[in-house]
C-alpha cells in the first residue's frame, strides 16, 4: 500500500462550527491513521487569512513533503490584492491549490468576482477546490459546470461532492466536465461507489475535512470493494497528479 494523502485538512478555528484544529492534532491524527501527507487550508474564519496562510507555510517548511498549503482568500477582495496574496502563497510558500468556499465566502461561483480565482489558477497552473453541498444555493455542485467549461485547462475539485444531499448533482457536473474531480468527504458509502461507476476511480480523491473524520473516510473506500490498485490511486496517485505534488524525499517510513 502506498502512503495516504489527505487532500482536505484545516488549521485554525471555524467561524461556523467553532471547532479549532491545531498542528499537534493534525500530526497525531496523521500518525494514528497512517497518513503521510496532508493538504492544509484555513477554515472559513474570522482570523486574518494571510496570517493563517503564513502559519501553514511555516508548518510545511518544518515538515517538508508532509504538509502542502491551499490558499483560501476572500473573493470579495479587489483583484490586485487577491492576486498578489495568492501569488505569495503559491510562488513564495509553495501552495498547491486555491480554495473557493461559496458558503464561507458568501458568494456564487458564477459571480464576476470569482473570475480572478479561475484566471489566476490557470496562470499559476493550480487546481481550484470548491466547497459544495452545505450552504445552497451558492454551494450547489452544478454551479461549477459553467466555470469548468469556461476554463477547461483548470481542474476543479468539488469538495464534499455535494455533501451527501447533492451527490447526484456532483456526479452530473463531473460527467459533464472532465476537468471536474470529486472529493466525497461526508458522502454515504454507496454514493462513493456510484461515483466510481459514473466517472471512474481516477477522478476521486480522499479528503477528511476534520481530524476525527479521517479514519471514517479511509474506511469508506476500504469497505466498498475497491482493488488495492484502485485504493492506491484514490489515496495516493490521483492526489499527486491533480495537485502536482513534489513528493520526492518522502518515504513510507518517514511519512508514517
Ligand atoms: Zn472543509
Automatic annotation (TrEMBL):
Keywords: Lyase. InterPro entries: ACMSD (IPR032465), Amidohydro-rel (IPR006680), Metal_Hydrolase (IPR032466). Residues 49-245 form the Amidohydrolase-related domain. It comes from the Bacteria. The keyword Plastid does not apply. SUPFAM superfamilies: Metallo-dependent hydrolases (SSF51556). GO terms for molecular function: carboxy-lyase activity; hydrolase activity. Gene3D superfamilies: Metal-dependent hydrolases. PANTHER family: 2-AMINO-3-CARBOXYLMUCONATE-6-SEMIALDEHYDE DECARBOXYLASE. This is Amidohydrolase-related domain-containing protein. It comes from Paenibacillus sp. BIHB 4019.
Amino acid at each position: 500500500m502506498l502512503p495516504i494523502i489527505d487532500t482536505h485538512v484545516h488549521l485554525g478555528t471555524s467561524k461556523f462550527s467553532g471547532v479549532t484544529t491545531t498542528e499537534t492534532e493534525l500530526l497525531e491524527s496523521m500518525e494514528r491513521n497512517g497518513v503521510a501527507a496532508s493538504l492544509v487550508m484555513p477554515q472559513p474564519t474570522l482570523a486574518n487569512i494571510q496570517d493563517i496562510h503564513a502559519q501553514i507555510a511555516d508548518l510545511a517548511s518544518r515538515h517538508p513533503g508532509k504538509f502542502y498549503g491551499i490558499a483560501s482568500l476572500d473573493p470579495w477582495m479587489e483583484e490586485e490584492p487577491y492576486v498578489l496574496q495568492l501569488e505569495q502563497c503559491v510562488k513564495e510558500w509553495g501552495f498547491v491549490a486555491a480554495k473557493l468556499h461559496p458558503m464561507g465566502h458568501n458568494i456564487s461561483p458564477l459571480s464576476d468576482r470569482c473570475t480572478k480565482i479561475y484566471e489566476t489558477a490557470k496562470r499559476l497552473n493550480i487546481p481550484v477546490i470548491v466547497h459544495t453541498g452545505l450552504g445552497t444555493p451558492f454551494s450547489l455542485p452544478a454551479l461549477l459546470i459553467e466555470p469548468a467549461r469556461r476554463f477547461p485547462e483548470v481542474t476543479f475539485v468539488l469538495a464534499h461532492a455535494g455533501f451527501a444531499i447533492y451527490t447526484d448533482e456532483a456526479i452530473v457536473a463531473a460527467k459533464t466536465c472532465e476537468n471536474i474531480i470529486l472529493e466525497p468527504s461526508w458522502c454515504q458509502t454507496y454514493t462513493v461507489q456510484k461515483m466510481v461507476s459514473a466517472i471512474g476511480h481516477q477522478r476521486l480523491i480522499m479528503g477528511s475535512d476534520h481530524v476525527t473524520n479521517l479514519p471514517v473516510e479511509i474506511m469508506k473506500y476500504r469497505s466498498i470493494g475497491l482493488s488495492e490498485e484502485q485504493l492506491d490511486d484514490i489515496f495516493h496517485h490521483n492526489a499527486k497528479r491533480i495537485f502536482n505534488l513534489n513528493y520526492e524525499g518522502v518515504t513510507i517510513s518517514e511519512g508514517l
